[in-house]
Structure formats: structure tokens, C-alpha cells
Amino acid sequence: MGSIDILTEVMSGDLLDKNSEGDSRKETSVTEVADIHQYGGGEFSAGSDSATGNGRCRSEYKRSIGENSLESISSGVSDDGLMQAAGGSSFGRGRISSSGREHQPLLKLDECNYNNFPNDPGFNDLVRQTEVAIECGILPERIYQGSSGSYFVKNNSGKTIAVFKPKDEEPYGRLNPKWTKWLHKICCPCCFGRSCLVPNQGYLSEAGASVVDQKLQLNVVPKTKVVGLISETFNYIRIDREKARAKRAVFERFPTLGRRFHRIGLPPKRGSFQLFVEGYKDAEYWLRRFETEPLTETVEKQFQLQFERIVVLDYIIRNTDRGNDNWLIKYDKPEVKETVEDQEWNVVKSPEIKVAAIDNGLAFPFKHPDSWRAYPYYWAWLPCAKVPFSQEIKDLVLPKTSDMNFVQDLCDDLYLLFNQDKGFDKQMFENQMGVLRGQILNLNQALKDGRTPVQLVQMPSVIIERSIDASGGRFRTLSDNFKQRFQYDTPLFSWC
User: Fold this and answer.
1) b or e along 171-191 (b: 16 or more beta carbons within 10 Å of the residue's beta carbon)?
2) What is the predicted pLDDT for the residue at 436?
3) Model pTM above 0.70
């Protein structure tokens, strides 16, 4: 597609057309839009340095990536329309229907802020730092390990502060930059994907694991939330890059005209934003070290307690991808110094061990695995999985998971999270929660009976579903009653 064609498409589709369809809008509405223009998903005042191409980091930055971002008040084709025609997806903007809903008043800026977490100012500040860093040219860096498009994001000083995983660059996403999954899809389509998981909801699964972790106070998952970011280093389709380039060219040459664009720059990407943890290494590394360098009794007890927290998390969310390469261990060895006078050893720093559960994107299935693979918990082969659950984990977990109101609150919190996805299906979500409730039921029983993690994973698969109330006639609704059933279908291969 030539640059002239791109420019023509942009001019005809994205600019405000005040004379189309008998438009009688007031001049004040156009003035409001002219005072604001968006560049790369953020709003700039008309006189900011970055808007004029100076290249310096702007002093005032207002985020406008939101569920209710500014809609185009044009009667022509909106940016969303162009995105959908190109096979893309709109982000955080209300849809404009063809029934006249495009004639809507300009939304207030305060209502359009998506990357806003008022209840978590610390997390909010980190996201803010990331946005400012990107605007200053410190772009996210792609992680070359793994099977999806994931990125290290940095703050203004260049320090890595989080890992961002866009929705459309997930292992089976349409813009995944890694060729391995494409080859998998072409060469082995019968085994492509995981039939028990909702496709392309890995970013919600990452954030959902953090919700469960915080709700149960396990503190093993780095805080994760859903955000929207824009960066040149993300994987975009060509038409998005050409449109952004054409819009910038129009804006630089015709500033007054360019301010009327719905958005200047690449479209924002929605994904999971997980805080980066420092000083951790793959569990595989430390587990091998512990075989030759056994831990002391005190440190081993600490590790057992941390390990049990990962077991509880993985079992509740039914993680289908927990290998020893996607959970981390941080071990600070004891620091000692020798006193020359009496030839004694004095401990300077006590040993400490912690774990972190990352890569939770393949969890929350809507059914237990019953097709090709069982997706077992690989920690079940570790020696510490043969030790009965400690009293500490029982005191932490049982009072919460035994309370049905707590379980329902957890499901409600997950509903608010999963409902953000455009492809959200309420019935599919209920199936996911049915699996989760069944896992919690088994976990409660195992803790009460004093079982080990190995015995826990050997318990039969239970699903607790909501009953359907048909008393209202032909309209069926979900009631507050639940029914329990077992899933007897087993996968073909139980060891992988």
C-alpha cells in the first residue's frame, strides 16, 4: 500500500467531517477537540514540546487509555472502524454504532483514564513511570525466551520494573512474534492449543492469579494487573504502522488539521503488567544446588512453607503450566565472618529463602484436561511434595476457603477482571468458576485430613456448578444453589 493511498485512507476515515450527513454540531464541540490531540495514546496540550516534534520529554502528560476514551465526534469512519477493517482491535473506546449513536457528547477526560488504580497508588506510580519512560524514548525490550511476545518495561532511569505481556502476542495470539507456535500450528494442528482453556485470555489469567494470591494472602505472585501500553517495539501489523506514520506526517505539515485526529500514533495494546522481582533464579537452578548443598533445618522449613503456598495457588487456579522453569527462588546465603581472637564464626546476616510464582497465563480452565495431555503439576515430583501440609498453611488458608461468602467474593472479583475482555462469555466464566470451586473443595478436605501435596493432586476432579433456576418460565437464570459432579474423563497421556 503506497503512502498516497494510506494518506487518502487516513484523511477520509479519521478526520472530522463537519459537513457530512447534514451535520448541525455546534462550533464549540469542534473547538474542544481542536484544543486536545492524542499522540501515542496520551494527551498532549496543544503547546507541548513533544507535540511539536521537539523530541524532549514533555512536562505534562495526561493518560487517556481508558474503557471510555474519547470517541470521535465525526459522522465519518472512526479509528475503531479502520482498525477493525484492517483486522485489528480497538482498545478502551466505546463502539460507535450505525444507528446514530456517533452523535454523542465529548466524554470528560477524568472518565477516560484506563491506567488508573486509585486503590493502589504504588502500582499506579509504576505504570506512570513506564508511560513517561516510553514517551522519553526508553522503550520496552522484548524477552527472547519463551513462546510469546513479552517485554521488559523500564522506568525513566532505565531500570527494569515490570514484565508486560500483550493479549494479541500470547502463545496463540495472532501477532505472536515467536515462530515456534506458528510452526506448531502448521505442523501439528491436532495438538494446537489447550482444549481446556479459553483462547487468548492469558493476560487475564496472569492478573487473576494475582487476585487469588492477594485474596488468600499467599504473597508468592508478583503483583499483576491489566494495563494498556504503546511502544514501537511491540509487534504491530503493517497497516497500523503506516497509518501512524501518515497521521504524524499530516500533523507536522498541517497542525490545525492534525489536531482533529481521533488518535495520532500506534494503537494501545492491552495486556498483563507484572512487577519485576530482583535476585531470583529459576527453581531448577536452586533445586539442583540443594541436592549437593543441603539447606539447614531452619531454612528448609522456610522453603517448605513457601513451597506449600505455590501448591495452594496452583491447585486452586488449576495451573496447566507449572514447570520448574517458571517459578523462581531467591536464596540469600548466610554471611559470616571469622573472629581472629577466639577463632569463632559470627553470623552477620541470617539466611532467607523466598519463592515467586510467575508465568500464570495458562490457568483457570473451564474444564479439567481430558483430551491429549493431563498437564500435571511438575512440583509433585519434588521431595517436599511428599511432606504433609504444615499447620501454618492450614491456619492461613482454611478459615478463608471454608467460608462460602469468601469464595463467592473471590469469584466476584475474578468476574470484574475477566469481564474486561471483549470476548467475555458469562457461561464460559461460570464453567471456569465451577472448576475453581471444586479445586477449593478438594483443597479444604486435604488440609483437614493432613494429606500431602502429592495426595492432593491424586484426588478425583470435582466441579461445583451453579444450578439453573427455571421457575421464572422460559427465562432461565443462575441461582444461588450449587450442585457437585465429578469429571471421570481422563486424558490420553497422564505424564505430560
Assistant:
1) bbbebbebeebeebeeeeeee
2) 97
3) yes
